[in-house]
Structure formats: C-alpha cells, structure tokens
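Protein: Signal transduction protein
Species: Salipaludibacillus keqinensis
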Amino acid sequence: MYSNKNSFKEIDEEFKTYEELRKWRDEQIHGVSKNHEELNRFHDEIMTKVILSSIKKLESEQGKPPARFAFIVMGSAGRCEQSIWSDQDHGFIFEGEEAAKDYFLKLGEEIVEGLSICGYEKCEGKVMANNPLWCRSCKQWKEQIDQWLDEESWESLRNTSIFIDARVLIGNKEFLQNKKQQIFTRLEDQPHLLKRMGDNVESSKKSVGWFGQLIPVQKGKNKGMINFKETVLFPFVNALRLSAYLEQIEEPSTIGRFQALENCSFLENDALSAFKEALQFRLSKTKVSQNYDNVHFLEVERLSKQDKTQIKKWIDQGDSLMKQVMKQLKNKGREEGSQ
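Structure follows.
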C-alpha cells in the first residue's frame, strides 16, 4: 500500500531510473485511486521526483541552474484534479536574463521525457516547459501576459486561463504570485476583459437531449460515450475560474476556489459538494482505464439509470452555476461602465 509519508530522499535512493519509477507508479496507483485527494498527492510525488531527477542529471552535465526559478504545473495538475492517467501541462518562470533560457529549455526537455516514461502523456497543445512560449524569464512573462490581454483573441485569452490555473510544484512561489496579480490588475482596469473571458468558455456542446437523454459522441473511436470531463466537470471549473478573476483569488484548484468564495451570495450552496461527488464518481468509473485516451470517457449504455440521472443533475447544476457567474460578470461590466 502506498504511503505519501515517504520522503523524496528515500524515494531518490529507491529509484535510479525513470523506468524504475514508472514500475513503482504502476504498482501503487490503484491503491490510491479510491480517494481523489490522495491520488493527486501521489501524482505530485511522482512529478516532483521526475523534476528533481532531471535537475540532478542536467547539473552533472551543465552545472547548477543559472537562476532562481519556479516550475509550474497547469491544467488538471494545477487544479489538483487529475484522474488515474493525466497529460503534461507545465512551464518555467525564471529570474534574470534571457541567457538562462537555453538551460531551462534543456531542463524542460529532460522533464518532458521523464514524465512521458512515467506515464504522463505529452500535451497535444505543447503546454510544456520545453516550449519557449511556456519557459520564460520573469520579465518576459510580464510582457507575454500583457500581450495576451492586449490581443483579446480566443487563443490569447485561453492561454491566460491556462496560466491562471497554475501552481508552483518546485521553486519560488512569489514569481507566480506576481504574475497572477498582474492579470488581476489588468482585469480590474479593463473590466470588459472579464466578459470576454466568460464568452470564451460559456458556449458548450449540448449534452442532454429534448427528452432528457444523454447525448453521446456520434462518431469516431469514442462513439457512444460522453466526455465526462468536458460535459460535467468543466462547467464547474470554468465558473470558478471566472469567479477567481472577479474576486482576485490566486488559488488554482476548483475546490480551493469554492472554499475561498464560500461567502459569495451568487454561488449555490450545494455546488461544491456536487463537484466533489462528480470528481469521485469519475474516479470510481475510470480507475481501470488503461491509458489517457479514454480516462475521461464513459460509455452511456453501461451506465445505470441512477448514474444517468445523477450525471444529468450535475450537468444542470454546472450550467446553473455558470449562468449565475456570467450574470455577475455582466453586472461588473455595467457597474464599471456607469462610473
């Protein structure tokens, strides 16, 4: 049985290669997949081990890191919402001159390969520390964030939302805090951007038909399935991210954002418990998945009547929450416009 009481020093002595760590991961993962929080602590431990091993390897070849840094994780890892399988979403914020960038890009490449060996799929969108877009100095990150918010395009605002879900796994937390505050300041000065952020995520595929039936994927390898992550979880995730923008909350996890916003009148009382239940439901249904490709999909025909009823209830709750948050965004815009 896995115990997260093991220190990283002990793990370092036990595993000499990424392959050995992957073997241990595969042996332990099902023991922690009954509990969502413990599973995500386990993922953190694996990822941290890979990063420390990568740093050690590059140090032996090129010396110590040339500047202080923060290694950030984003996406489901940033929000502590990973399932049994997860892909990679990460980057670097480093101090000092751009001359240090080559070192951190090489370190990022080593981390990407190490995580891949350990079972973490490479990000299709290349949101990874070996991509210059996500490996930047503090100064360059400031310029990039301003550029994203100046552009106001779908892609640039999506990148901003990816970044706001970040947390520091290893390194200087202040580097990330400063960048999040930069985003909050821009949104406060230009409240119309809040509405644009909302428009970016408000539309979603219809998931429940006129007769109350779940609408599955109609073609391709996932035909007959629903994407539980997109259909059920994302409305909660997106609503709480938008709320975090409104209330300037740095916390990246959806559950943490709920807790930070517990006194906000526009959040429905049972929304947090619904989201926790949905996370646990996904874990219980997908913990036997063999790879990342199908970890978010559920076959509709194999769901019980009770399961389908519960899923539709969560969908309704997520949609209702999103509508309430969008109303707050519009009210914020009107208030600023009247001043």
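Remarks: Residues 196-337 form one domain.
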